[in-house]
Amino acid sequence: MIRRETPRHLVLIAQHDHAVLAGELARRMGNTLFGMPSPFDSVITAISQHDCGWIPRDRAPELSSAGLPAHVFEINILTALDAWSDSTDQVAAGDPYAGLLVSMHSMALASRYAAREPEANDERSRQVAFRVRRFIHRQIEVQESLRRRLQMSIDQPLRGGLAEIGRAAEEDLLRANFFLLEFVDQLSLNLCFDRLVFEKIETVYPRAGEPSLSIRIFRNADGTVRLDSWPFNEERLELNVDAKRIAPGPYRNAEHLKSVCESAERVKLRLLLRPASG
After folding, report:
1. What's the domain count of the chain?
2. Cβ contacts of 255 within 8 Å, gap of 6 or more
3. Boundaries of domain holding 149
């Protein structure tokens, strides 16, 4: 869930709708500097569906400590692990290459969580740390299985599911596609939130096998998001994302919030993306 706060309303964007928006961004990739996604259909499927496991969970949102719908950075990690696992399994069932990308993305999110958490010093924290490690281990197994289905190598060292740069063309392409998913995922979050979550995206590959670059992100007072390297095939992008509008809260409990969300007003948010120099 993504939450925007105003004096009169909360605006909620479901994780899956944010992912669909990321897929729309990826569809528009490609110009003289940046290549189009390839294999196109599989990459777009991975990006558009990478949060599909959140669909049932966003129908019954968790509450934050302030009594508000918990947004993606407030959510319980155990809920996230289950959603990431479901996303990987659902996508992989239909497209193994797309599933491989979603598994790598989910594993990266879990690994980042583990890296920033302090060492467990109580029983509950140790159980959570164990669940995170178990999730990461399972994703490694899932990726090996998907690589077999795709007839990709499984007998080389991998880090985060990625081979060393330059080892093989298909591995460099997988690397570029993984970081494309990361890029449009973070860019979509910047568009959906009412603030910049990421001011700079460190690693974007214009084309497989080329050196990576970083892209800085800016936000105008009117909500327009701007990029200092422009990867799209249009001069500017005007996009929409589905959302719900509810009262500002706080809410008594999760059941109360769920009932409010079920009858919430549906709206479309208009989003604008432009080059930094435009």
Report:
1. 1
2. none
3. 2-275
What count of Cα atoms within 13 Å lies in the side-chain half-sphere of residue 132? 21
Say yes or no to pLDDT of 278 above 80. Answer: no
What phi and psi, each to the nearest 5 degrees, are found at residue 197? -90, -35
**Tokens linked to 257:** 């919030």
Name the 3-class secondary structure at 29.
strand
Which tokens in the block code for residue 198?
A: 């990421």
Question: How buried is 217 (Cβ within 10 angstroms: 0-12 exposed, 13-18 middle, 19+ buried)?
Answer: buried
d(CA 189, CA 212): 21
- Percent with pLDDT over 90 in the chain: 92
**The pair of three-digit structure tokens given for residue 276, joined into one six-digit string:** 């930094």
How far is the C-alpha of 59 from the C-alpha of 79, rounded, in Å?
13
Quote the CA–CA distance of 180 and 168 in Å, as a whole number: 18
pLDDT at position 126: 87
Of 190, 180, 210, whose CA–CA distance to 102 is shortest? 180
Q: What one-letter code names the amino acid at 158? A: L
Report the amino acid identity of residue 60: A
- Residue 85 tokens read as 């696992």
Q: pLDDT tens digit string along 107-135?
A: 999 999 998 877 767 888 889 999 999 99
Sort 92 into a burial class: Cβ within 10 Å, 0-12 / 13-18 / 19+.
buried
Cα–Cα distance for residue pair 209/116, rounded to 1 Å: 31
> How many CB atoms are located within 10 Å of the residue 224 CB?
15
Mean pLDDT of 57-70: 94
Contact indicator for 65, 123 with CB cutoff of 8 Å: no
* Number of neighbours of residue 219 by Cβ within 10 angstroms: 16
pTM above 0.90, yes or no: yes
